[in-house]
# Entry
Amino acid sequence: MPVNVELVLDARAELGESPVWDDRRQRLLFVDILLGHVHEFDPATGHDRIFEVGQPVGSVALAAAGDWVLAARDGFFRLNPESGAVTLIAHVEMDLAGNRMNDGAVDARGRFWAGTMASVGGRDRGTLYRLDPDGSVQRMLAPVSTSNGIDWSPDSQLMYYVDTPLSRIDAFNFDLATGDISFRRTFANIPTASGYPDGLVVDAEGFIWVGLWQGGALHRYSPNGRLLGVVNLPVSLVTKCAFGGPNLDDLYITTARIGVDEVKQRDVVAGGVFLVKPGVCGRRANRYGAVAPGR
Ligand code: CA
# Structure
């Protein structure tokens, strides 16, 4: 896919992740995980506001009231974008000191899914959780190593999920009414020469976009698992993308610069947020605690 790649924010994020478009505010949210930062970037002005969470934060998502929810080191939190106040919803894995929460997303019935990982190495120490609108937390899948992904097919029949060291994208049958997942299977294998699968998002046509950590690219897969497109980035640590803009046809991409001194010179803009116009549209991000229209 020969598209123009534009650096829209030279954020120098250590570990830029979890981009999500806030359609009410018309801004791009993303996190810098290890610094515990939530960014709110306004493409119209170029202004980038930074919220301090006070602990590592793996992902941010929208909530029904217009505020945001976080999957952070110690569990699930709310962040008020007006005051910057961070309040606890539910603790997760407080007994596992080396673990933190990682990528997350909200399903069409307003449940926030996010998993955990060991912050330093170690396989099979994580779990995928589901935060329900009533604030209760359900354990959905264990063990996992580095919980990533997550998104759903447009009809909510499938959930796509990534456990990064497995080098593949998995699919589950998804029961929208109950929030249950079943019948895990491989959706697409990704050769390690292409990098490691990280965050993913499903576009309006039901195609799957995944960031390639150490792969310097995004891959786009058809719903039957065929690799149909590659967008090459000028940095190697590509984490995740999100559709945004007034028409949801701008594709924003987060990246990282962890260990950048050891990688290539081309990574001078590593940690930046990039923009491409792929010619397809995304879907509005779901909100925690809200039922999506038509659902
Ligand atoms: Ca990730």
Observations:
- The first strand starts at residue 6 and ends at 9.
- DSSP finds no helices and 25 strands in the chain.
- The mean pLDDT is 95.
- The domain at 6-288 is CATH 2.120.10.30 (Neuraminidase).
